[in-house]
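REQUEST ID: PR-0412
SUBMITTED BY: lab tech R.K.
PRIORITY: routine
TASK: structure prediction, single protein chain
INPUT:
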Amino acid sequence: MFRPVNPSGPSIPGLSQAMLIEGGKLLMLSGHVPFDAEGKIPTKDVAAQLDLVFANMEATLKAAGTDFSSIVRLTYYIRDFDQAMLPEIRAVRDRWVNTRCPPTSSLIGVAALFHPDVMIEVDAMAVIAEGKIG
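STATUS: complete
OUTPUT:
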């Protein structure tokens, strides 16, 4: 349904340079944020917020009849980004995505997000096999 495209030459380990979509339906996920079940932001820790963002994203994917295996693109928006955050961000991501076929991604450092306690927001694209949308 989709496959990574990684040309030879320099690349970032653990990332797909491109995804070739060969079938299915495209699902666009808007920016997901670290709200808990009560609509609160329980922590200011970036890794903990990202884990909650991915849990919220999983609920959206499930409502669409799929799961994280259909994710082909992630875009991270991180407030006050520092490169020292990257290992933690990747460790959280690797618990949620297929690391043998990782989604394409971009990380954008921003000065602020919609709420002062939100450190990270993530949007995504998924491809769902025909007949699997719930």
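NOTES: The first helix runs from residue 46 to 63.
REVIEWED BY: pending
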